[in-house]
Each structure stands twice: as structure tokens, then as C-alpha cells.
Amino acid sequence: MDLLYSGQHQAFRQEIREFIAANLPDDMRQRLREGGFATKADTELWQRRLNARGWGAPAWPKAWGGAGWDAAEQQIFADECACAPAPPPHIFNITMLGPVLIHFGSDAQREYFLPKLLNADIQVCQGFSEPGAGSDLASLKTRAERTADGYLVNGQKIWTSQAHYSDWIFCLVRTDPGAARPQAGISFLLVDLKSPGITVRPIVSIDGRHSLNEVFFDNVRVPAEKLVGQENRGWDYAKFLLGHERAYIAGIGRSKERVAYARAVLAEMEAAGRPADALAPWRGRIAMIEADLHALEVTQLRMHGGHADMKLSPMLKARGSEIFQAITDVICRMRGAAALRADTGTLAKSYLYSRAVSVFGGSTEVQKNILSATLLDLR
Fold it and tell me: What sequence ranges are listed for the domain Acyl-CoA dehydrogenase/oxidase C-terminal (predicted)?
């Protein structure tokens, strides 16, 4: 795929590889390669090393401490982190909240939060989904009533990743329940998770991990200066944020790393004396997935390069999810039935986690609905 990039970009890729090789702890690399997940400590350590190099926020402007890279450089960096494998820059800090504050936040919000987000001095989480308002986000019911000095928040969020160890949560809340359109009455608030009235309850997912949570707000007071942008304009800011979240949600690098791991497993099986005819089906399946992945990468580069309508980006998310699930499935099946026992290690947990990839960030069904409506508009 380097043929798709300029010589300057290929040199940039080599620079990224050398930095990761010199700075990524071996134990972290090995845990991630075996299907494990980055811990809070992993995320903090790696984010700070990236920030010290000036790479803590690939897409942020340099004026705010970002790298200021173009789309191709951002893609190369994301791919190399995934292929190492290394954790990406903190998704909630860097990919989601940071750009919203840069574009819509107040000077005081930018000056206080951006340096802390960059260096993982604080960690934030996303308070969007609610019971009955996940994919239908405009149906959210968490209320924020105006008070003399701010807002009084009541309601519930769910599926909130990392809320149990985050410091702040950025929330969509309903500030005008009488708005003509449900999207028109929503605001974007920053809420300190240490505030009185907040309860965080764990959700243990099918892979046995605690990464998700319910978050309850019971008369939580939020100062007025923690409103981002204008009241009742939160839907616009949320769409902007989700556009950043989904920019590289096809997960090209993540799937490349899993393809490389699958080939390593195949080589182990071959070295152990498995006959060629027994390995041929696996070899063929990996090759087919790799071909699909190549096609997806070319499609993504065309879109980011301006040669196709980015309104079609839901296809990247939907197809990328399918490819990641397919290669994860192949790896587990190659390892045998024991790999699918949740009590045997990280590979089974990785497989079970992969089932969620087609749900978070907008389910595949929702992406297909968006895509079909877009295609009708483009006719």
C-alpha cells in the first residue's frame, strides 16, 4: 500500500515506526498483540510519550499543541499505531472532546482543558447514549434545567466507556423540552464526575470486562461556564464530534495488525508439522480478507483525498466492522476450540469484544440506512 503514498509520506511512515519501536514498552505491545486491551495506566503513559514528541493530537492545529498533520499523515500514524500494536491517542480526550472545544469552546475552556487532555492529566468519557436513546440519540431524556448560576441535571446515561475512572464526562442534555424538533432542544455540557449526585454503576460485558457503565445524575449542579457553545445547539456539536469519531472508524490499521497476527499463527501451525492441505483453507480465507481490506483502504484514501463524497463514509464503518470481525473469527478458529473459552485468556475476550464493533459508533444497520438515504439524495 505504500505505492499509494508519496515518497515524503513513506519517509514519515518510517519515522513513526522508529519512534514506536523506541518508545512502546515491550510488555504493552505483547499484551495488545495477544488480544488484550490498553489499561488506564497504558493510555496515560503512551499519551504522554506521544505528547512529549508533539504527536499527542494528530489532527489538532499546532497552535493548540497538535501535530497539524494532513489526512494522509493522520492515516499513516493511525495505521502504524494499530500495526505495532500501540494504543491510539486517547479517543475521548483527543478525537472527540478536543476538536469540539477548539471549534466551539470558550477561551477559558480551551485554556483549561486542552493542555490537560493532551497530556492525559485528566481523562474524559462520552455521555451520549441513554436507555431507549442509543442509535436514536435525539430521543435522549436527561434534563438540564437553567438555574441562577448554571444547570440542574437529572437523568441517566448508559454504555459509558471508562466512566469508572474518568474525571469528566461530556454530555448531551435536553435544555428545551418544548422545542419543535427534538434535535433543537439539546445542549452540550462538561460535567465533573466528582460532583455530588453522580452515581456510576458497572456494566460487565460478554467478554467479562468492566469497561462500560451506567451513569446517573440526581440534581447535579453544573456551572454555567461548563456549557460548550450556545444553549440548544448541542446537536450541531455532537454531529461535528461524531464526524471526527468516524473519520478513521474503518479500522484499517487494526485489521492489518490482525491479518499479520493470523499469518503468524499460520506459520506456527506450519512449523508444528500441520499438512499443507489442512492449512490451505485458512491461507485462502486470510488472503480473501486481506483483499477486502486492501479495497477498503483504497476507498478510504479516495474519500479522504477528496475524490469521493464523504457522505458515503458510513460504508467505511460498516465494511470495516465486518472485516475486523471476520479476521478475529479466523484467528480464534485457527487456534482451536479452546481459544473460545472465556476463561483461557485474552484471545477469547478479543473475539467477544469484536461483536460490539458493528454496534458502537453507529450500528451497521443504522449506517446502511444512512447510506441508502445518501445514495437516494445523490442520484
Answer: 232-375
DSSP 307: S
Taking the CA atoms of the chain, what radius of gyration do you get in angstroms?
22
Statement: residue 248 has pLDDT above 70: no
Average pLDDT over residues 62-83: 91
Active site residues: 245
Q: Would you say domain 2-89 falls under CATH 1.10.540.10? A: yes
Length of the chain equals 379
Q: Which long-range contacts (CB under 8 A, 24 or more apart) does 298-302 make?
A: 298/4, 300/75, 300/248, 300/250, 300/252, 301/4, 301/72, 301/75
- Whole-model pTM: value is 0.86
pLDDT at residue 88 is higher than 60 = yes
- Residue spans per domain, the chain: 2-89, 124-237, 246-378
Q: Is the pLDDT of residue 249 over 80?
A: no
Residues 246-378, CATH architecture: Up-down Bundle (1.20)
- Average pLDDT for residues 155-168, to the nearest whole number? 96
